[in-house]
Amino acid sequence: MDDISRTRLREIFGDRFRDAPDDRLCYSFDATGREYLPDAVVFPLCTEEVRRTVLLANEFGFPVVPRGAGSGFSGGCLPVRGGVVLSTERMDRIITIDSGNLLAVVEPGVVTETLKEAARRLSLFYPPDPASMKFGTIGGNIAECAGGMSAVKYGVTRDYVLGLEAVLGTGELIRTGVSTAKGVVGYDLTRLLVGSEGTLGIITRATLKLLPLPGSTGTLLALFRDNGAAARAVAGIVAARITPSAMELMDRSAIDCVRRVVEIEMPENTGCALLVEVDGALAAVMAEADGVEAALRTHGAIEVRRATDEAGREQLWKLRRSISPALRKIGAVKLNEDIVVPRSALPVMMAFLSDLADRERLTIVNFGHAGDGNIHVNVMISGTDADERRRADAAVEAIFRKTIDLGGTISGEHGVGISKAPFFEMEVGPLGVSVMKRLKAAFDPKGILNPGKIWLDEGMARS
Ligand SMILES: Cc1cc2nc3c(=O)[nH]c(=O)nc-3n(C[C@H](O)[C@H](O)[C@H](O)COP(=O)(O)OP(=O)(O)OC[C@H]3O[C@@H](n4cnc5c(N)ncnc54)[C@H](O)[C@@H]3O)c2cc1C
Fold first, then answer.
1. Is the pLDDT of residue 192 over 50?
2. Region 331-405: CATH code
3. Tag placement on the chain: N or C end, fewer CB within 10 Å?
């Protein structure tokens, strides 16, 4: 980035333009732990400042990389080609919550939990609940189409985005979608922008759908001897025509990992755990919790625990919530994947993962959203052993191939970014890649927005 670009950005942003080494360092990494230094960081307060940044980037040819909280797991906000990181953290206003029309209008830097809380105070519900919701932003959630535990019943971020305002790679400002419950005029550009990982437009405002807040919640934790029994219980719950608001599976590797760092009482022969939650009106919740418990017991649960109050609920969630902190203690590096297979293929995939771990002498910790067939597969790497790293990389590729063979997808919620770019074409095929590149050219002809993401550029190393 040249001196003239810096001067012009300083004119727009004043002290909200930063290019000191420590500022650049703070915006050089995300949750992947990988690091790429930007040339500068800017903190817009409004759409017009975003627009002026992109116009300048067109004039001087530097990349602009949008960034929310930097909590992404695929390197989406990393400035792999340098340029300017555009942080949305100061565009964090909830502009309106419209109770009558069940919608909210927000800026992209609003933290997801802040919106959920504001809606809750009005007895309204914004369902998407990524585990990062206490720090991740709505802009980042939309750009990655974030999911969470409630997706099994309520869907993912995409299902709550009615309309968007975004600055395209040309600097033009587009408004897509509607502020109504329905709308079908022309191509669905809103859906195209959702999950586009900051490569088509910078989202500056979002109109989001809200629901009435469910009145109560019932939580059950079931312990099984093995994954097969738990998978049959999941099928049993679905067959009973119950749609839980969470259905989280933890295999033996995940349970062992948690029990190395947290004390949780359970029978020694526990090989799999299933956490199930139902929500709605109290009478319906009681009836559904009974139905879930019956299905769990019929399909071989060795123990079923049921929470009757908030403290009990927290206790049941402890196992699931402890996995991520526990993982940090057992491996120096984790290759964190978020594959999805058809629900019926879950037992086959779980058996494949267990065999692969044994065969390749790797620790692979699996847990996730059983109701969606979305498994968080964590291939753990203990240190700097090159052979272990090679086996781990080969295992990830084998997992992706098996996932696609089973009719699944290599990412349910974390996106492609740089970490899955080498495998992108494996799933979408050459024509898919070509059509997406043509779409990119229509939105961002000079390749200003977040270059080097989703597909491998020429000369980009596979890593
Ligand atoms: C502990 C932990 C738990 C997590 N749990 C989940 C989970 O349960 N479910 C899940 O889906 N993810 C999860 N994630 C991943 C991550 O939090 C999500 O991908 C989240 O959506 C990223 O939001 P962010 O604000 O941090 O975005 P960033 O990481 O800053 O950016 C992510 C992508 O969005 C783009 N972007 C950001 N803002 C904009 C904008 N305004 N316009 C256009 N593009 C933009 C960036 O360029 C980048 O490509 C987790 C991460 C962590 C660290």
1. yes
2. 3.30.70.2740
3. C
Q: What is the pLDDT of residues 293-319, one digit of tens each?
A: 999 999 999 999 999 789 999 999 998
Q: Is the CB of 451 under 6 A from ligand 1?
A: no
Question: Is 157 near ligand 1, meaning CB less than 6 Å away?
Answer: no
Q: Under CATH, to which class is 216-323 assigned?
A: alpha beta
- Classified by CATH at the fold level, domain 3-87 comes out as 3.30.43
Q: Name which residue leads in pLDDT, 308 or 39.
A: 39
66 lines ligand 1 (CB under 6 A): yes
User: Fold match between 216-323 and 331-405?
Assistant: yes
Domain boundaries, the chain: 3-87, 94-212, 216-323, 331-405
Nearest protein CA to atom 9 of ligand 1, as residue: 130
Map residue 296 onto helix, strand or coil: helix
Which among 77, 91, 149, 420 is the best mutation to test ligand 1's pocket, defined by most ligand atoms within 8 Å of the CB? Answer: 77
Q: Is 255 left (phi over 0), alpha (psi -120 to 50) or beta?
A: alpha
Please report the atom of ligand 1 found closest to the CA of residue 76. Answer: 49
Atom of ligand 1 at shortest range from CA of 413: 11
Q: Tell me the C-alpha to C-alpha distance, in Å, between residue 208 and each of 12, 70, 74, 98, 359.
A: 30, 22, 25, 10, 46
Split at pLDDT 50, 70, 90, the class of 463 is: very low
Least Cα distance to 87 among 31, 128, 49, 60 occurs for 49
Express each pLDDT in 318-341 by its tens digit.
988 888 888 888 777 888 999 999
For CA atoms 210, 145, 75, 171, give the dihedral sign. negative
The Cα–Cα gap between 7 and 12 comes to 9
Is 94:106 a contact under the CB 8 Å cutoff? yes
